[in-house]
């Protein structure tokens, strides 16, 4: 449970995600997004830290631009981390349900 506590932007990948989703950016920074992908895939903690940081940016955020930039940050999970197609489908399903719920709350008054 220790990984759930603390600031998700304190990890190296979290710091990059915070920069990549800053609302002061004029548009997506694709070089930074690719750096996030590389860093995410370079360590065992990378995927977990990236998900925590992106989730923090999306959940309860009123800044639409930051939410859209967070959704633009694309991670390419390596097959060795996913280990199987059912795991990949489960992760995709969880993200779809999470984002669907989030988008519904943005549309609701």
From TrEMBL:
Record-annotated VHS domain positions: 20-73
Gene3D superfamilies documented for this protein: 1.25.40.90
Sample GO molecular function, one term: ubiquitin binding
GO biological process: signal transduction
GO (cellular component) term, any one: endosome
Listed PROSITE patterns: VHS
InterPro entries xref list: ENTH_VHS (IPR008942), VHS_dom (IPR002014)
Transmembrane segments: none
SUPFAM superfamilies given in the database record: ENTH/VHS domain
Protein's UniProt name: VHS domain-containing protein
Organism per entry: Poecilia mexicana
């Amino acid at each position: 449970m220790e990984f759930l506590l603390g600031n998700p932007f304190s990890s190296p990948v979290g710091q990059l995600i915070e920069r990549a989703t800053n609302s002061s950016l004029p548009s997506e920074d694709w070089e930074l997004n690719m750096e996030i992908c590389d860093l995410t895939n370079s360590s065992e903690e990378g995927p977990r830290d990236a998900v925590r940081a992106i989730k923090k940016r999306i959940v309860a955020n009123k800044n639409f631009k930051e939410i859209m930039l967070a959704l633009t940050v694309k991670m390419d999970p390596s097959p060795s981390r996913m280990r199987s197609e059912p795991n990949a489908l489960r992760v995709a399903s969880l993200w779809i349900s999470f984002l669907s719920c989030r988008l519904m709350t943005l549309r609701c008054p």
